[in-house]
Design brief:
The structure is a single chain. This protein has one domain (3-65). The protein has two helices and no strands. It has helices at 3-26, 29-65. α1 runs antiparallel to α2 (29-65). Residues 36-66 have a biased composition (Basic and acidic residues). Residues 1-66 are annotated as: Disordered.
Length: 66
């Protein structure tokens, strides 16, 4: 998708990683798990956005061929 979406996903991933690290350092398993979850959700969003971009590029290419 757009650059803004990519930046937002990376920011969410960084926030999750920070929370995960904080949980590890403090021994707070709940914060660690939340951080891991947030980080993985952001990575999944990024992967979905990449897939959408690929499909859009493919369909745009088909339109040009016709």
């Amino acid at each position: 998708m757009g650059l803004g979406d990519k930046l937002n996903n990376k920011a969410e991933e960084a926030t999750g990683a920070a929370k995960e690290g904080f949980g590890k350092v403090t021994g707070d398993i709940e914060s660690q798990a939340e951080g891991t979850s947030e980080k993985l959700q952001a990575k999944a969003k990024d992967a979905v956005d990449d897939a959408k971009d690929s499909v859009k590029g493919f369909t745009d290419g088909l339109k040009k061929d016709n």
